[in-house]
Amino acid sequence: MRHSLVPPAGPQRVLALAQLSNSVGDGAYYVTSALYFTHVVGLAPAHVGLGLTVGWAVGSVVGVPLGRLADRRGARGTAVLLALATGLAVASFLVVRDFVPFVLAACAYASAQSGLAAARQALLAGLVSAGERTGLLAHLQATLNAGLAVGAGLGGLALHAGTRAAYLGVFAVDAVSFLVCALLLLRLPSVAPRVPSGKRYGAGVLRDRPYAVITLLNTVLLLRMPLLSLGIPLWIAERTAAPAWVVSALFVLNTGAVMAFQVRMARGVSGLASATRAVRRSGWIMLAACAVFALSAGASPWGAVAALVVGAVLQVVAEMGQSAGSWQLSFDLAPAERVGEYQGFFGTGVTVARTLGPLVLTTLLVEWGTPGWLLLGAVTLGASYAMGPATRRAAGRVAAEVRKPALVH
Questions:
Q1: Phi/psi of residue 214, each to 5°?
Q2: What is this structure's pTM?
Q3: Within 10 A of 45 (CB to CB), how many other CB atoms are there?
Q4: Residue 3 has pLDDT above 90, yes or no
Q5: Burial profile 249-287: b = 16 or more Cβ within 10 angstroms, e = fewer
Q6: Of 100, 261, 304, 307, which has the fewest Cβ atoms less than 10 A away?
């Protein structure tokens, strides 16, 4: 693992190439979608926001049964079908002209994306040993950032052109990227279904309270996700004297740091104990980042820039540590035969954070100012410390399940 973007040859590298493919398309989509839906399709901004919120809400619910499908029918075939479904959903945006079709397309897109994420995690678990999973996920995260950066560049060209054809081209590229992803996933070895047909193993993930608590705490830690895209830009504009170009610089800093150091940060995480330590340490670092960000208010322009850069460095270190720890916990605390179902549930934290994060961050940072930063850091630290006892309880449940014979119906 010498290079952060090149995992070992074999299934790990194929998974990384599949990740790179659709992340390039997603990067272009993220940059251009808002203007495409408002300027080209002609939807009101409020309708776009509502439609996407409804779509991701549906996707967060559908991710669990689609993950269960991957466990029961085979992770590779399910992942391939969902990659194709995502591409078709993106392509459907090309013909959407009214609000209701837009909402339906958004629901299809978010559902397929959520299910694909769960199926790929189940596929990864079937192809890679437990000791290598967190390291591979670190590679995939670095690859994701690289692809998003390339895709954002392509989207920027479309924004510069500003034509309908340019926007349509971006969506076509995104749709094709998922087709390429599906073809790459077909190159992987088949993974046998983890749950034999007609056999059940206890209650579903929604009734696994210890794992639900882990997921909830991780969701709290993920509320920082819209920080670079929304919270800090608004903070800079409303509360500091820093120039606007700092927003772009901080985004580049974050993306580059994850590409360069995520794999290295994940190397020390190899079990539940090291994972909880990584999460707890990230809580302290995030608290420090919030305090430094708060110092940028009222400072001179260059003083604000310095505080923002230092805060961004601390924030990305906290992000990488929290990511590595949460990956390890999400796999180690899930039953081996139901990884897809459990990963589908754990992934809802991302959707909830993306939905609630903008409201939470704008209230705390823009309206409350420095006290809001400190409260955000304190809540993050509290959630990171709570992860320890929650993990011990969940680990006890896993041990009990291993000792208990499977229920056959």
A1: -55, -45
A2: 0.81
A3: 10
A4: no
A5: ebbebbbebbbebbbebbeebeebeebbbbbbbbbbbbb
A6: 100
| Residue-level pLDDT at 4 | 46
What is the chain's length?
A: 409
Which residues have CB under 8 Å from 102's CB, separation 6+? Answer: 37, 41, 43, 47, 48, 51, 93, 96
Cβ distance 191 to 75 under 8 Å?
yes
pLDDT tier, 330 (very low <50, low <70, confident <90, very high otherwise): very high
- C-beta neighbour count of 237 within 10 angstroms: 12
Could you read off the pLDDT of 337-357 as tens digits, one per residue? Answer: 888 999 999 988 988 888 888
What residue type is 56 in one-letter code? W
Provide the terminal-to-terminal Cα distance of the chain, rounded to the nearest Å.
45
Token pair listed for 135: 């390291």
Q: Does residue 120 carry a pLDDT above 80?
A: yes
